[in-house]
Amino acid sequence: MRVGVFICHCGINIASVVDVERVAKEIEKHPDVVYVTTYKYMCSDPGQELIKREIKEHQLDAVVVAACSPHMHEKTFRDAAKEAALNPYRVEIANIREHVSWVHEDREKATKKAIKIVRSVVEKVIRDVPLEPISVDVTRRCLVIGGGIAGIQAALDVAEAGYEVILVEKGPSIGGHMAQLSETFPTLDCSQCILTPKMVAVSRHPRIKILTLSEVEEVTGYVGNFHVVIKRKPRFVDENLCTACGDCEKVCPVFVPNEFDMGLSLRRAIYIPFPQAVPSSYVIDINSCLGLEPLICGKCAEKCEANAINYDDKGGRIEVDVGAIIVATGYELYGKENFPEYGYGQYEDVVTGLEFERLLSATGPTGGELRRPSDWKVPKTVVFIQCVGSRDPDNHKPYCSKICCMYTAKHAMLYKHRVPDGKAYIFYIDIRAGGKDYEEFVHRAMEEERITYIRGRVSKVFREGDKLVVWGVDTLAGKKVEVHADMVVLATAIVPSEGTRDVAEKLKCATDENGFLKEAHPKLRPVESLNTGVYYCGVAQGPKDIPETVAQASAAAAKAIDILSQPKLYHEPTVAVVDGDKCTGCKTCVSICPFNAIRFNEELKRAEVNSALCEGCGSCAVACPSGAITATNIRDDQVIEMVKSVLQEA
Amino acid sequence: MVGDEWEPKIVAFLCNWCAYAGADLAGVSRLKYPPNIVPIRVPCSGRVDPRFILEAFKKGADGVLIGGCHTPNDCHYVVGNFKAYKRYILLKKLLEQLGINPKRLRLEWISASEGRKFAEVAREFTEEIRNLGPLRLWGE
Ligand SMILES: Cc1cc2nc3c(=O)[nH]c(=O)nc-3n(C[C@H](O)[C@H](O)[C@H](O)COP(=O)(O)OP(=O)(O)OC[C@H]3O[C@@H](n4cnc5c(N)ncnc54)[C@H](O)[C@@H]3O)c2cc1C
Ligand code: FES
User: Are residues A297 and A397 in the same domain?
Assistant: First the structure.
């Protein structure tokens, strides 16, 4: 071995506490060290030039730079070495600044500690093997899971950048909750009007394939090379043939609650979720249809002139390879049934925010006229309750659902627009209107629309005749409040959609304590998961409104495009390696690996590491009872030699 | 060796992502602590093989520190810190049987933002080992 050691003064940062010349003298004694020098600023251009020159001059085959933390300049020095044709993995850093000169004052002791550290790193570097980064190919296709506005935006962005997209949606149409909304804060533009063009753009895009009634069943592989199995449920209607004429629907004898209208209207067993649905096709709800096997009714098929109905549809399994995955599985509302104090959801006129959206919507059950569900009368007094189940760590959800302050102000405002002589009361804890034009919007609700805001919680809602009595407190006035209302709207907490946890598990991504997708870093990597190549957007990651959802979707798309546009992906080569001859086939490592990077080869009866998946934590090397697994360049023998050398007197 | 001359020798295995970075921050913040602790950088606390620790005691360490990321969620490799914890508990029992005071081994969760904690742990642990005196293998 021909090791060169380069000791940095770091101006006076190191040299004023550590006697660098003495360190140099001590290190020179090591039998493998052939060259030692000190220099004022090793990281400067001349410093790097010096290293490059000496590597060539002394034919060094390993280098130790004793300087600042490897987190600062490991890459700098490895790159420099590479330019001098030395393998960068044969360069190691001894940290004698952050870990020595900046934290100690006694020159003698600090110098001794520095010697120990440098010596131990020399012991490591002489045992380092040269490595090349692991390169893998990239499949230039993206999977987007969830077809709400988040998934729609992400799919469009990735497709526009030139890559194929598979958009998987669980329901019969894309659109998500935004399709259900009436008008949107803070501008009050109609939700469908701004969403429909995007849905159409997705359906027309030559590079986007929409798979509705579909869910991801299995995901294997790793960044750039995921293999995905998708399960498609039968639609029983050929979406390419269906003209959405609606003839089938008219003859269907079955009526069931319409989920798009939150159960406030009825639909048939063959139905289209909403007029602007994409794909624009009917679907048979097999759970409410009178029966296909054996065929009981068959009226819809008889009526369909396009011959689009296919009772033999069995659904299918689709397998695709993708390079990146975006998760956008959205949200649900925390159910009314969780609130005994508000009637367990038994009172028809106590509705959730989404139900109220449908009652306001021009395409809703009332055609946009506001009427209450129990008797379809126009409610003259409406009470809105905020933070229902949110910000309540003891009983429900600890977090703020973020959008309720805004949509409640919107609801009250839209109600006043429809029923100008009506009275609207809002019970709130405090108002959070931190978005562009949001404060102004709430202000408008309070001042111009004369909505009564009452600061306080509602303890109880109960029925008295055809009224709902609301008991609350006005904490500002310190008084009890009783309102006799015709209707009550609960802003219940936003929760992650039912399948989010399941999808996260399949993708080896984490969820937080509330079930939302957990990002790799809350501030600096907000759309990335810990599984490289998997990104998040929309409410599945945390409550947010449409503008924020769209921004996040574009961010996730940019991250995915970053992967898809690489000619090859490179991966750190400091991974685990199995010595097949020593492996006894106990499989301990298989279960211990958090990245599923180790597979048991049943034929050869030995463990195998997928080096593209291995992150190099080294846990398996510790767990392996037969010593068959080694952690490249941080092998047991390396660490043991380092231990010995730090314990030797300096 | 006991006397004014003796100084505790402590080896610290620090995970790259949290404890090592915490020690870096102690440096950046110029927090002072005794120079007895000599760090060895490992990818994760889950990489620390009990053999490394036994070897350290055998070769003259009076104390061994393992520094990792906070449980439950901070480990860069998801659960390496939990693995370290399990091994640590077992190893403490083993040390006792070997006649080594289990206090000589310490596991600490130190995040990259806890420079102060790193310096405190370094101070405290050095003090503790100083009070325990030099390790005499084959029967303390
Ligand atoms: C009452 C109410 C009023 C609102 N009003 C406004 C407003 O005025 N202005 C505003 O900016 N925001 C408003 N919002 C917020 C807005 O609804 C959300 O910001 C937005 O819909 C989030 O979109 P998303 O795509 O993340 O989620 P979603 O709309 O929930 O879409 C998720 C999609 O993923 C699908 N999916 C779920 N699980 C799976 C799975 N496992 N596999 C495949 N697909 C799956 C779902 O079927 C759905 O289509 C309101 C919200 C509520 C509750
Ligand atoms: S990376 Fe710090 S404990 Fe695993």
Answer: no
Q: Is the pTM of this model over 0.95?
A: no
pLDDT of residue B139: 55
Residue to mutate among B57, B78, B121, with most A CBs inside 10 A, is B78
Query: Among the atoms of ligand 1, which is closest to the Cα of residue A168?
Result: 43
Interchain contact, B27 vs A592, CB within 8 Å: no
CB contact under 8 A, A647 and B56: yes
- Give the ligand at the shortest distance from the Cα of A188: 1
pLDDT of residue B1: 46
- A247 at interface of B, judged by CB pairs closer than 8 A: no
Q: What is the pLDDT of residue A221?
A: 86
Rg (CA), chain A: 32
Q: Are A600 and A583 a contacting pair, CB within 8 Å?
A: no
Q: Do residue A118 and residue A188 come from a single domain? A: no
Burial class (CB in 10 A: 0-12, 13-18, 19+), A473: middle
**A559 and A618 co-located in one domain:** no
- Measured between CB atoms, does B2 come within 8 Å of chain A? no
* Closest ligand, as measured to the CA of A516: 1
The pLDDT mean for chain A works out to 96
Domain residues for the domain of B96 are: 10-14+27-69+80-126
Is the Cβ of B39 closer than 8 Å to some Cβ of chain A? yes
- B49–A636: do the CB atoms touch at under 8 Å? yes
Nearest CA in chain B to A646: B38
B-chain CB neighbours of A102 within 8 Å are: 27-28, 30
Range of the domain at A198: 141-233+315-330+497-564
* Same-domain check for residues A502 and A484: no
Q: CB A643 to CB B52 under 8 A?
A: yes
Helix (H) or strand (E) holding A385: strand A381-388
Structural domain total, chain B: 1
CATH of residue A583's domain is: 3.30.70.20
| Chain B CB within 8 Å of residue A95 CB | yes
Using the Cβ of A525 and the Cβ atoms of chain B, whether some distance falls under 8 Å is answered with: no
CB under 8 A, 24+ apart: contacts of A368-374: A368/A182, A368/A418, A369/A418, A370/A414, A370/A415, A370/A418, A370/A419, A372/A348, A372/A486, A372/A487, A373/A264, A373/A348, A373/A349, A374/A347, A374/A348, A374/A349, A374/A466
Whether residue A362 is found in the same domain as residue A478: yes
- Ligand 1 centre to CA of A177 (Å) is 4
- Examine the predicted complex and report whether its ipTM is higher than 0.90: yes
Q: What are the structure tokens assigned to A83, written together?
A: 């330019």
Overall average pLDDT of the A59-72 stretch: 97
What is the per-residue pLDDT across A180-206, written as a single tens digit (0 to 9) for each?
A: 999 999 999 999 999 999 999 999 999
Q: Is residue B20 part of a domain?
A: no
Q: Is residue B134 part of a domain?
A: no
Is A489 a residue whose pLDDT tops 70? yes
Contact B35 A642 (CB under 8 A): no
User: Closest by alpha carbon to A452, among A383, A402, A405, A378?
Assistant: A383
A157 within a domain of the structure (yes/no): yes
- Say yes or no to pLDDT of A44 above 80: yes
Ligand 1 atom with least separation from CA of A503: 41
CA distance linking residue A218 with residue A198, whole number of Å: 29
Domain annotation covers residue A343: yes
Whether A649 maps to a domain, the answer reads: no
CA angle A191, A193, A195 (to 5 degrees): 65
Instruction: Give the model confidence (pLDDT) of A585-631 as tens digits.
Output: 999 999 999 888 999 999 999 999 999 889 999 999 999 999 999 99
Q: A442 alpha carbon to ligand 1 midpoint, in Å?
A: 22
pLDDT (tens digit, 9 = 90+) per residue, A251-277? 999 999 999 999 999 999 999 999 999
